[in-house]
Amino acid sequence: MAGTGVLYLWNLGVNGWANPFYSAAIQAASKSWEAFLFGSFDASNSITVDKPPASLWIPALAVRVFGLNSYSILVPQVLMGLAAFFLLYATVARVAGRPAGLLAGSVLALTPVATLMFRYNNPDALVVLLMTAAAYALCRALQNGKQAVWWMLAAGALLGLGFLTKQLQVLLVVPGFGLAYLLAAPIGWVRRIGHLLAAAAGLVLAAGWWVLLVELWPASARPYIGGSQHNSVLELTFGYNGLGRLSGTEDGSVGTRRTLTAGLFRLFGGGFAIQASWLLPAALILLGGTAWVLYRTRAWRIPAGRQFTGMVIAFGTWLLLTGLVFTFMRGIIHTYYTVALVPAIGALIGLGSWLLWRHRKHTGAITMLGAAVAATGFWAWYLTGRGFLQGWGGYVAMAALAGAIGLALCARRPANSRVSLILLPVAAVLAIASALAAPAAYSAATTQVAKTGAIIIAGPRPTIAHHSGFGHHPAGAPTIPGGLVQAPVPSAAAVRLLREGGDSYRWVAAAIGANNAAGYQLATGLPVMPAGGFNGTDPFPTLAQFKTMVSRGDIHYWIGGGLPEKSHGGSRTSKEINDWVSATFIPTEANGTVLYDLTATGPAR
């Protein structure tokens, strides 16, 4: 954990505001308890982010204590990574011993996408922590029948909090967790079903209170629900963040890139491969080998074997179901989503290695263990063939092959034999080092370059920030693939102009899209309204609402540009507002930023 902390904290400040969209919302939540409760983008509560607010709460509290800066936002994410490491270690160690737990935790810590996301302020860090914590609670429930109901209640509540972090994604682990408890709990069938119902109640209560509160709260007295077209959290849940992700029919979405086309081998190609697939082949091989050994030995008939079997079912279904959804979903998907697979990969590596080594005298078991080691080495060689480790992949593959052969040679020999005493430590070091060396190098490289914006990837490449040809954008606001606007870095002249008398207005400015507005809000420290929400395609505010706000003197400036032209449907009201403003008010240029003073009177331009 100390080593992981050093890796994750190293050069952390290079990420700046990381994802300015969420950093701006964290800033708002630190200033307004209403924004904290609803997850508003700005402290004046115009519109929420396109997720529930749980991922904002911990860093917002840190900002209240330590002030707004990169470290108060990102250090809590690092601590979430350390907690996830410890909980995965503790879970695997309970059923397979500390070395297996340490191996599982190390896989989690050194997978590049985990290093990326535990140094970032997207919701993925918290959702991974909560799912891992729920797996730990499940493990405790499988171990102790007397306190099982409380552990299952805790597991459900943790997943409910996960729902308040990233909505339906967290439910992908529920079928496997339920199946594991149903088949492996050390109690009678009636009590098992009762405990599962308790877990379901914990999930519904932990998630449902917020959903019910938002639905019952008068819409006129709360911020608009960002990401929805009808100001509904249920629409956000089942549409934009739910079934729309599977089908691709997400109104207001900017779509997904061609390079991320759905297909059977999506996770092994394109930008996905170097994120989380380094040990994915090994995890799948070990899952198959573990299932074969468990079936052959009927291990679930004894208490310890039953708990082990339950956790294999839980993590195995976690990996398979989540992986298949990521593989075939046709809606918005980013490569960093694969961080949700990493705890399952780490757990299956730890559990499978331990079990197959215990049964090493059987040819099938040692063969599968050796195949997992060799496959990891050769997959690393393939992935590094064109990367920054080009030329080193061959050495990793040879070390993995040597480790696999060494383990096979030691498998049938007594542990105290001269060959085993000399060869086994060498083989084990080669096997583990070859498995972790390449992902560790990519993780280290991830810490050396700035990762900022909405779409990021692990590895040595910095954030992509160039014009993609979609839309018209203000100065300093490049786009990223898919037509999203990168958060601009406002000029000193623009910030000075916005701050002048800014405290007299509810919103110091309004701009199309949250990514455009975020840069100005973070720079000025004052609320900036993101017209149209995240993508600029939500129907808030309408032109009539905006005119009313202007007539009341609520908004000082309109920031020109920022509307992406490529989207899947959604409202065009933000474009209507932009057209009305540009036809009604006189523009002022502040070092490349075009501002319209909405309080100034005079002839139209």
Automatic annotation (TrEMBL):
Domain of life: Bacteria
GO terms under cellular component: plasma membrane
UniProt keyword terms in alphabetical order: Cell membrane, Glycosyltransferase, Membrane, Transferase, Transmembrane, Transmembrane helix
Record carries keyword Glycoprotein: no
Bilayer-spanning residue ranges: 73-93, 100-119, 125-141, 148-164, 170-189, 196-214, 272-295, 307-329, 335-357, 364-383, 389-409, 421-442
Protein's name according to its UniProt entry: 4-amino-4-deoxy-L-arabinose transferase-like glycosyltransferase
Organism: Paeniglutamicibacter cryotolerans
Domain Putative mannosyltransferase YkcA/B-like C-terminal: 495-583
One Gene Ontology term of the molecular function aspect: pentosyltransferase activity
Bilayer topology: Multi-pass membrane protein
Location of the Glycosyltransferase RgtA/B/C/D-like domain: 50-210
Any one Gene Ontology BP term: response to iron(III) ion
Lineage summary: Bacteria, Bacillati, Actinomycetota, Actinomycetes, Micrococcales
Compartments (UniProt record): Cell membrane
InterPro entries given in the database record: LipidA_mod_glycosyltrf_83, RgtA/B/C-like, YkcA/B-like_C
